[in-house]
Each structure stands twice: as C-alpha cells, then as structure tokens.
Specification:
2 copies of one chain form a homodimer. Chain A is mostly helical. Helices cover 72% and strands 1% of the residues of chain A. Chain A has a two-stranded antiparallel sheet with strand order 1-2.
C-alpha cells in the first residue's frame, strides 16, 4: 500500500473508533469536515516515511501516530481560520469549519481534535498484555507530539508569537510550523523503536523550507493552486521571509534548506527513497516554473513602469 | 498539608516546570491569569481525596493528576467565556482571559492548557527507570482524563450539545459537567493503583449535584457570591434543571444527589472524612439560608401580585 493510502485508511479507522454514536451529530460532522478530504497530509507522510526506513515493527502503532499528528495539524487549522485569527472563508478549496457550521462548533472541533490525538495513541495501550517497551514507546510518542504542539516551543506557542509586539522571525516560524515537522520526524523514529536524535535536523530543515515555501506561494500563488486566499501575510501584517529576504532571496534559501534536508537523512536502508521524496515534495511546494513565470512578469512590469516614469 | 495547599503548591510547581523562559510572554501571562488564583478547585480536591483514601503510594503522581484535571477545567472555562459562547466579562471575580488579553490569546490559552494537562502527566514518566506499573498507571490516568474531556461523552461533547436543536437535558448535563467529576473520582483511584469502578457513582452523583446547584444559583445567586453574572441560562436559552423541575424540585433533587453521593463512597479507611467533605461542599454549593431567603421573598412577591390582580 502506498503511504498516502495507508494514512487515509488509518484516518478513517481511527475516526470511527473514537467518534462513536454517542457524539453530538453536529460536532461529529464538523470534525469530519475538518479532517476529510485532507490536504497533502505532508506531516504524517514524512512521519511514516521515517518510521518505515527506521524499520517499523508495530505497524498499527505507526498508523496511530500518523493519525495523531494529522489531528493536531487539522485542529490548529480550524482554530487559525476562526474570525479572531485569520477569519478565513476557504481551506483546501472548501468552506472553513466556522463558516460551514458555526464559531462555537469550530472552537469545540479544535479542542476535540487535540484530545482525540491522545485518545488515538492511548487506544494502542488498552490491550491486555501491553509490553513495557510498547508502553514506553507510546509515552515517548505523546511526549514528542506534545512538545510539537504546546508550550514553550510548539505550534500553539508559534501562533502566540503573532500576538507579541517584538517577534524574532525565525523563532516565530520555527515554532509556528517547524515544531510539528520535527515532531513528525522524531515521532517516526520513536514509533519504530529508533533513536529520534539523528532525525531532528531533517524535521527542522523541512519545517523551515515549508514555511518559506508558504511565504513564497503567498506572493506568487493563485488561490486555485493552494486552495486558500493569497496575500494573507501582508493583509494580516504577519512577518514573512519573502518580505525580509526578497522573493529571489527566499527562493534561494528554500533550495538551500531542501538540499540540507536531503543531506541530513541518516544512513539507513531507505535513504535514497527518502531523498527522492524530499525533492519531489520540494517541487510541489514551490513549482519552479510558476516561480520563474511570476519573476519574469514582475520584472517586465517593473521595466515598463521605469520607462513610463 | 491541607488538600487545598497541596493542590496550590502542585499547580505552581508544574506551571514553572512546563512554562519555561522560551514561552511567548503574553501567552504565559494569559495562562497564568486563567489558572491563578483558582476557583474552589473542587475537581482536583475530589480527585485527591479519593487518591488519599485509596492509599496513594506515589504522591508526586497524585499531584500531577490533580494539576492535569484542573488545567482541563480551566481550559474549558477560558473557551466557554469567549464571545462566540457565553461572551462572559467576569470569571472568579476578575476579567476573563479574552477581555484581559485578546480573543486570539484566549483561544491559544485554552489549547495550550489542554496540551499542558498531558505534558504534566508525561513529565512523570521521563525518569530513567520507570516501572511498568507506573507507566501503565500514567497511561490509564490519561485515558480516564481524555474520556472526561473529549468525544463522545466528555465536557467538549457536552458543550457541543448546546449547538444541537434537540437536546436531552440529562445527557447534556452529564457530559457538560458530570464527565469531569467522574474523571476526578476514577482518576483518583487509578493514581493510587486502585480499581476505579467503585468510584464511578460518586463522580456521577456529585457531577449531577454540581450542575443542578449551578442552575439553582443561576436563579437565586448574587454576582458577588458566585463571581460571574447570574441569569445566564435564561439569557443564552440553555436547558436548565431549575426551569424543568422548578426551583423547589431542583433543590430536592440536589439534596437527593448529595445523599446518594455520600452513600456511594466505597468502604475504605477515610470513608467518614470523605462523607463529611461532601456535606460541607454541598452547603458551599447551595447555601440553604440563601435558598430559603430567596424562596420566601419570591413567595411574598407572588402573594402581593395576586392581591393586586
């Protein structure tokens, strides 16, 4: 089974397992809306690739970790889209949860998804004869995941940096986006019973690359391409690498980070496959043809306005 | 040390342990505002009393559980107070988090507190030689806590019932308030390595009693007494036992539930102390003098309006 299909199957199974008939129908529907159909599922894919090349021996635990990670990501999207943050109407090409349902339900959906992430992992520990190493692995997975989400350096803290008057751009972006990427690579290793430390750099590089890609797409992107409104950073006055480094500087930095990510993959059986995945993903994140096209058009416009002046 | 002091000390210690210097200052301040000074801390008190009479053998784990429970409760208060729910200005006699800080920070504070509840328990498992029984206990505590908060029957689901057009009053209240009380009694037993099942009824009875007490106070209360605006149920069109049963019916049901709670305490060394605690708490929840006074005044008013008609 391809990684994408495996993640989709796990998402469906765990959704039905946790959200039983007793759940309030609107909350259930709102949670489903937030989770299906998904986006690129890039974090669980990265996580699962690391677990597989690290020699996963408990596939159902690997699956649960992928779901937990994606639940946390979707929870943050639902809350970020709410009127008090981005006030976004569209996400993944469809209406956001608070628009489709209501603000109270969007708030509760995010909360329920955060708790559900732990429930999915805890459900892996309820069998009669749980081995000590299995128990420790689940605890460590929850630990890594919590660090990626909560205080002091997780995605929630990253969002909170937006509320500060003085912000260190890299610290902010590292927390806002990068922390769930490092959680993905490290938790993938832990799920397979491997040491997470050698996987930290891959998560950091990809997280930084992903954030810069987001900034670049926010400048060059079309709403059809990324499924959400563009120009959001400028509109919301958020710090952006594309503004600080300039578009060409940001693209050069993006390429450097992708190269660094590929180089950082530790020596393991699936090293080449994982590297190929990284380069393929990089092209999805910032299609170089789109980028070049935008650059040429904006240079032409600049020349025209210089001639006219 | 008294239970109240022990809980306060644990809250302070775990706050400093999780929220290190790297946390965004406003988020840290907002989380502090949400947690200190606390309300009655009734849930962690109940939890700790059960752990103590069940023969707690790992006091630092008991402490962590009390903090985790209170963090979940405070998270739900912060989110419930937000404009899209109760739009409350006051909580515990001071301004609510979104009023004091901002809506985005209130949203993030709730999220961070939910994750922190797990972090506090997970921090109990990071020592070098963690025994298997200790690991299993922490996992089971997180399991009980998650059920009390998430879907299908936790407090988040309880809140979501408010968004449904058809609501079963008891199902709604059992989830909205009761689920964290059953989590408190059951988690207290688990923390002490005891069987949680005999403690379920105590949690259910007290949860129901607490919710009815809230409804009664919403009718008879003064804002000075309960630290938040009264008449909220009617204003928000929320189902309330005081409306369904009438005030006197609700008070009779409250007393029956308290008696039932006291009777349900399983045979254990501290049984009498725990029962005395329950009766003392019942008087705090619905001061019978206040209740009688309100009843007399409203009967006099009714007689006067009948005479005038």
């Amino acid at each position: 089974m391809q990684i994408e299909e495996r993640i989709q199957a796990a998402m469906l199974t765990h959704f039905d397992e946790v959200i039983s008939a007793g759940t309030p129908p609107s909350l259930r529907a709102a949670m489903q809306h937030a989770l299906f159909p998904g986006g690129a599922r890039i974090r669980p894919q990265l996580y699962m690739a690391v677990a597989m090349v690290s020699g996963e021996d408990l596939p159902s635990l690997t699956d649960a970790g992928a779901v937990a990670l994606e639940l946390m990501h979707c929870a943050s999207l639902v809350h970020d889209d709410m009127p008090c943050f981005d006030d976004a109407q569209l996400r993944r090409g469809k209406t956001t949860v608070h628009v489709e349902f209501s603000e109270p339900l969007a708030l509760l959906t995010g909360d329920a998804l955060i708790v559900m992430a732990y429930q999915v992992l805890l459900n892996q520990t309820t069998k009669k004869r749980l081995s000590h190493s299995h128990a420790l692995r689940v605890l460590e997975m929850m630990n890594v995941l919590s660090q990626g989400v909560g205080v002091p350096h997780g995605i929630v803290a990253g969002q909170a940096w937006e509320c500060e008057s003085k912000v260190d751009l890299w610290k902010y972006q590292r927390a806002k986006t990068g922390s769930l990427f490092t959680a993905a690579t490290c938790m993938g290793a832990v799920a397979a019973g491997a040491n997470p430390a050698p996987w930290l750099e891959l998560g950091e590089s990809l997280g930084d690359a992903y954030q810069i890609a987001d900034d670049i797409r926010d400048v060059i992107g079309h709403v059809e391409l990324i499924g959400k409104p563009v120009g959001q950073d400028i509109e919301h006055g958020r710090p952006s690498a594309a503004q600080v480094l300039g578009l060409e500087g940001a693209n050069a930095e993006f390429k450097r980070l992708i190269d660094n990510a590929a180089k950082s993959v530790p020596d393991c059986a699936g090293r080449d496959i994982l590297r190929a995945m990284i380069f393929k993903e990089s092209e999805r994140l910032v299609p170089q043809r789109e980028y070049q096209h935008y650059l040429e058009v904006s240079k032409q416009k600049q020349q025209q306005s210089e001639l006219a002046a």
